[in-house]
Prior knowledge:
Elements: E1 8-12, H1 17-28, E2 32-37, H2 40-52, E3 57-62, H3 68-82, E4 87-90, H4 105-133, E5 137-142, H5 155-177, E6 182-187, H6 215-228, H7 232-245, E7 249-250, H8 259-269, H9 277-280
Parallel strand pairs: 1-2, 1-4, 2-3, 4-5, 5-6, 6-7
Amino acid sequence: MRDFAGRTALVTGAAGGIGRALAHAAAARGMRVVVADLDAEALTAVLDECRARGAAVAEAVALDVRDAAALEALAAEVCARDGAPALLFCNAGVLVPRRLWEQTAREFDWLMDINVKGVANTVRAFLPRMLATGAPGRIVITGSMGGFIPSPMLAAYSASKAAVWAMAETLALDLAAAKSAVGVSLLAPGAVRTRIFEADRHREAGADALTGVPAAMRDAMIAGTAKAGIDPEEVARITFEAVEAGRFWIFPHPQMLAALPERTAAMVEGRDPEFDFARAFRR
């Protein structure tokens, strides 16, 4: 898929990080860009940035991906006005570093509802309309290398991204069987310089605070990401190259794939899980 100009790209989780960079990349290709996020104030800045980068039209929508009805209403509005999106980026996601047994049910549900159900809600709202046009299109679902390589303190996050991987791959198979012109890509980055470790800013009033997470550990995760991570704009560049080539797998950190054969061998041989940060998350 290479014909972007004048067509619509919709990005969830677009107020910062990877989503913001994807919106920038779509705008630079002359697309009509719709950015959605809970953070209405930050979206205003992204909207201005997209216009400055050449977006044919740019629109911001304050929206919670947990709200299936809101996504359905957005899809109906966007598709009636502009036609179905050519690119649908299911990108909204949050992360909380915590041991599973120390995580409240409410916090666990909050993370899963955004990371997993948010993807399903977005696909259900937009994909039928994309299919109805018969035009080429692509859904890009943001997963994580954490879905392939579970990490200590990230049980819920790793589980959510493993679920997203399964959803994306199954969706690709179903669309291929239907001989659809709409394809799917799974974006699975490693460390990226975003604010994902500051998920607390997304919480609604009264939700559980990030208590019990040692400040030193959280600061170390943020510092490690700043040091070893790549820029979101680089992730967006790699993503659009993959979309143009029609690839399902998008790995901005290909060096991390070296850990997967050893993991598979350990499973086949029945060895207990081990985690080696330096080996799995090599730069």
